[in-house]
Structure prediction request, 192 residues.
Amino acid sequence: MTRPGRPAGPAAETEEIVLTAALELLLTEGAAALTPARLHAVTGVARSTVYRHWPMPRDFLAALIAVAPHPPVRPTGDLAADLHAEVDGLCDRLRDKPVAAFLRALVTASATDPSCAELRRRYVSDLLTPFHAAFRAHGTTDDAYIEEAATTIVSPLLVDALLLDHPIDRERAHRAVDHALARTHHFEESAP
Prediction:
């Protein structure tokens, strides 16, 4: 028996309208702008609907992370080629898409709302996932090593984009991949 009442979530069209506006506000004004009252004013969606589904800025951030596109991982079997392709994709996402701005907003939100720190970690983890997959597809099984190698590749890009406001340096990113590959070859040769 089903019970009448409100559906568990907003209608797909309403969610798209609100989250599109939330992303725009986030990128132009920062996470502090993600309030139900502001989203109601910008979208015209009923205030009660916005409050019910996204009562806090953290809820908007979590919803945006949940719908963020994750490029499919297509390993070729050539670890070097796969890692270079993944780092090119990340460079493009940091340069052309709102990834860097979104990360900045998550860092800022984490400073005032500690519950956003887990969202920031989850988002960064999502950025590392394609690199983890490339190593695993190559046959690397040591999780600690995979994490260290992926972090070695991604960290310089995130520092440049988030902390230093430097343009994305593709050559530096490829050098980080080459450094990780050299360590991987050494790691594989010394493994029993």
About this structure: The chain has two domains: 12-66, 70-190. The CA atoms of residues 70 and 126 lie 8 Å apart. The chain has a mean pLDDT of 83.
